[in-house]
Amino acid sequence: MKSALVKKLDIYPQPTMIRRPPTVVCYICGHEYGTKSISIHEPQCLKKWHNENNLLPKELRRPEPKKPEVRTITAKGFYDLDALNEAAWTSVQSQLVPCNIYGRTFLPERLIVHQRSCKPKAAK
């Protein structure tokens, strides 16, 4: 004979695992996009990157990010999305600039904002 709790649990359906659609990390900004929309996003993101980079002081300007080459192909002939996303994330992280006082890394346009309030700790 089933207990009251087991009977109550039988009434409610068990939650099913919802699988997210595959996403690709943009090598420029680091955001995730669907496999179909990444090809639309990348040219627009690169154009935005150029506009923002040109507004930075010369010492903070960076070279254009290069799209990482990932040649890992699965047995079915598809790219390994995990390897592609890992390479894109590494590309994004390499664009960060460290604070000259504490060493924390920022995007160049955010480093300017950080430096306004960043002061070295006073010696005790």
From TrEMBL:
<dbReference type="Pfam" id="PF13913">
    <property type="entry name" value="zf-C2HC_2"/>
</dbReference>
<keyword id="KW-0479">Metal-binding</keyword>
<keyword id="KW-0863">Zinc-finger</keyword>
<feature type="domain" description="C2HC/C3H-type">
    <location>
        <begin position="95"/>
        <end position="124"/>
    </location>
</feature>
<dbReference type="InterPro" id="IPR026319">
    <property type="entry name" value="ZC2HC1A/B-like"/>
</dbReference>
<feature type="domain" description="C2HC/C3H-type">
    <location>
        <begin position="22"/>
        <end position="51"/>
    </location>
</feature>
<keyword id="KW-0862">Zinc</keyword>
<protein>
    <submittedName>
        <fullName>Zinc finger protein 474 isoform X3</fullName>
    </submittedName>
</protein>
<dbReference type="InterPro" id="IPR049899">
    <property type="entry name" value="Znf_C2HC_C3H"/>
</dbReference>
<dbReference type="GO" id="GO:0008270">
    <property type="term" value="F:zinc ion binding"/>
</dbReference>
<keyword id="KW-0677">Repeat</keyword>
